[in-house]
What does this fold into?
Amino acid sequence: MKPERRKRFSIQLMLAIGVLVTVAVLLISGVLSIYFGKRLDHEFRNKIAARKGQAELILSRRFAQIQRRLEDLSTDNAIRVTLLLDAPAQLEDRLARFYGPDNGLSFFVRKAAAPLVSPAHSEQVVDALLTPPPGDPPALKAEASPVVWWFETPITSDGARLGTAHARYDLSRDQELIERLQQLIAGDILVCTTDGLNSLITGSAFELDAKVLSQASGAAALAVGPEGHRILKLDGYTDLYFLFSSADLVSEKRRISMLIGLFTLAVLTFSAGLSIFFGQQMATPLRKMAQKAIQISKGEKNLSFETRPGDYWEIAELSKAFDSMLRTLKAAEEKSRYKELLENVDDAVYLIDRSGRILDANEASYSRLGYSSAGFFALPLSALMPPADAERVLGALGDADGRRTLETRHLKADGSALPVEIKVRQIDYRGEKVLLSVARDVSDRKEAEMALRESEERFRSVVENSHEGFLIIDHQFHILYANPEACRLVGYPPEDLTGGDVGRLLTPESLKVVKKNYFDWLRGDSVPTHYEFDLLRKDGDTRRVTISSTIINDLNGNPQVVAQVLDITDRIRQEAERKELENKLIHAQKMEAVGTLAGGIAHDFNNLLMGIQGRISVMQLNLPGDHPHSEHIQAIGKTIKSAAALTKQLLGFARGGKYEVKPTCLNDLVAKTCDMFSRTKKEVSIRRNLREGLWSVDVDRGQIEQVLLNLYVNAGQAMPDGGELFLETENVTLRPAFCRSYGVDPGEFVKLTVRDTGVGMDEGTMARIFEPFFTTKEIGKGTGLGLASVYGIVQNHKGIVRVSSKEGQGASFFIYLPASDQRVVAEAGVRYELARGQESILLVDDEEEILHVGSLMLKELGYHVLLACSGKDALAILEIDPQGVDLVILDMVMPEMAGGVAFDRLRAVRPDLRVLLASGYSLNRQTQEVIRRGGGGFIQKPFDMVGLSRKIREILDA
It folds into this structure.
């Protein structure tokens, strides 16, 4: 007889899950493979189109650059002159110096109506120049080779054609272009010649006939090699093609296919494991239940059929049935044991089920409450105690340990309440989980606690709501209590302070004072009850506080210190800040008053210098170089420049305005000025630490150079026997608290540090170093304007200047200039030749000497000059003939009608009138406003002939 074949549900379940998952995974893998393949093809086509467009853009920019250079050659005055003078040697020299061969580009010039080509070249080049191929435009001619192009443009003068400028460009020799293409397009450029396709970058050759090559002109790429190479025709170029490789596309497709395969394998493996897991989930619980049933049949009752949240419903119900049977058996055995315990306990003990029904209780549970036995058992738990507490008690059935302790009250039969402390634990009773509750009368304890609590609340209300800190410290200097204000003051939470050593809150000096007072009190000496000391916060900050202390004894007779602490740090700091602000206000008012006087003196002095400078300029223009007075006149000119530099220092100190503000890299100015200084002060070693990536600043470069040189000179004078000068720049961000006392807006600044190893300064000298005419030098060795002008210029740039020094330890100056978001502008070269003209210029100034000198200078420059001694006179002259004046030179400081008002009235008569503003002051806010309204430019007095001539031409030729 054959054994019975057992059919297993777990095996059938595993097979069904495996088949379904395998089919689904194969379908998903196929869809993913098709999707990613199409997506890769689309992305590759877009990438190749972008690279091809980049190559076309690079070529078109190169041809445009060649055309611009050819146009520069055709407009070159030197080339025109050599053609007019028929000077081949000079022509060749000019071409060789400025238009020599470069990256495959060569330039040629052919004189009109002549076979001469300069410089000389081969007959093939001459023939190519003289006989352009038919059908090509005049500007672009191609040779037989598609990598060579010809460009040409006429050279004319006053409408007459002097000759023709030619450019020959060999693409294959332009290494710079080839390297750029190689870096940017990640491909190659193919050139179609009579010998076939040749690579522009690598030089390799490809063989394709014309019929096959014509197919590359379409939108699709043409394969040209076994390694996945393809070509596309470059738009706008007949014989140029873009070469690229599809190897990356093939590699990426292989990688995607491999990933999809790995994904499929992983999912199939997971499905197999999942099917095995579900089979085990069914078989394992049934096997365990069978084993426990065998143990119960042998008499073992301390077992339980537990269910888990993930068990199947049928298995869970079967476990519950077995578990109920076991509880019924054990309940009968335990009932007699619990009954004996309940009756011999003085506390109220009762059992409660899940619904809050009282199952059993001892006599003490109901006799103290005035209930009968039947009446007590009829009460629900919510009637015996407050409903909220009843819910808390029943909640113990859901706790992990099944235990709870709480204080509540039991309601007596007469309606009064009995305070009790209840301890609850979960037990098994008659086959189910119930709560065993033990309630103890705590009426006496509650009365004592209430009295103590009222006393503590009164103390806590006073202390915790106080605006002063309270600390209680025991005889071992441990903190027993700290109120919220004390915790806030030291920065520690209460749990970190309580029990900790008070020494960590005090500086070493303050801790000595506290301990001394304490031990003096123990000896019976009198000690102060109020004193100040330094308190250490958790973050390391130090606070100045006042303390009022009292020493008392605790219940055990040990002394305790009750300290009342008040923070006075902010008050001290505010008093110091107020005093510092008062000093700075007084200093600023003094500097502003002296600055106004200095600015007025500098303005008037500049007008006087203008008269001298103008006459010297006219004399130098008309005086031969070998004249016996020429040397004296040059010396006078140098003296005038020195005097003008002195007035610039006065104007800088007076904060008379910035002359010409440009975005500037401070590193460049530091490098330039320290090189100048090092040549004159070789015994001083300069150490530079100029940070890279420095932010730009909007400054007048000349004024900042003056600031730097003044600081260098001051440092050099502090080191008469030599020393070291340290220069450092860096980017910093200033906080509002730092900027508030200096009156500047917080934000990003560029910081310059100038530090020397000289003799240093005392506090009295540092307090006055920025005052005008204050100097520690001997008479004749210093004007006292250097650091004063530093202060004025930095203030005028909305910056900050600070100084730190000690006697014998050198001095450090710190300059903070606001950072700019503008890019740095490179300085243009200076031109010194005179620029003449023949236009009509109206000169307006209230100084008769300046009118006279200005007239002489303008006439020497060839201009027709009209003079006006006030704004009203200038307005009257312009109203007579508005179009008869080409330019107005207008003084900004005049009586009756100021320069700004005169400008507006002159422009009202003729809106397009060009105006050059002039002043003995620097370019201040008023002058800048006039320039914004249409003023053509500004020139500061005193000015020489060259500066005036260049400024006039800049405005007239604009």
Q: What stands out?
A: The radius of gyration is 50 Å.
